[in-house]
UniProtKB/TrEMBL annotation:
InterPro entries: ChrR-like_cupin_dom, RmlC-like_jellyroll, RmlC_Cupin_sf. This is Anti-sigma factor. Residues 13-107 form the ChrR-like cupin domain. It comes from the Bacteria. Gene3D superfamilies: Jelly Rolls.
């Protein structure tokens, strides 16, 4: 789509949280909203993830790196605590897991699909 109408590119705040299911695996306690779907890659590259208290995402690799912004709550990546307002850039092939004790909502930009390890 090569529209010059900015309204064609806005994601309105009316999307519903969906359970995070990747390759048939349901990650309990994690919900997702897709903000940008890349048709060429056939996957979402910008997402919101909401983690309930105690939820975790397994150890994985980011072949294309990632950007992460904590919208609320607290997340733990490799024993480092990220709080509301913290931003993290990880370079290509950076590996980590994500856990939370009390819950959090995170904005992710993930140029390439993650690899669960």
């Amino acid at each position: 789509m090569n529209s010059t109408n900015i309204s064609d590119y806005i994601v309105r705040n009316n999307k519903e949280w969906q359970p995070l299911i990747e390759k048939g695996i349901h990650y309990k306690g994690i919900s997702v909203i897709s903000l940008h779907y890349d048709a060429a890659k056939q996957r979402s590259t910008t997402i919101l993830l909401k983690f309930e208290s105690g939820a975790s995402y397994p150890y994985h690799n980011h072949p294309g790196g990632e950007e992460l912004f904590v919208l609320n709550g607290t997340a733990v990546l490799e024993k480092v605590i990220l709080n509301h307002g913290d931003y993290l850039y990880t370079p290509p092939n950076f590996k980590h897991s994500v856990t939370t004790e009390k819950g959090c909502t995170l904005l992710f930009v993930i140029p390439e699909e993650v690899e669960i390890l």
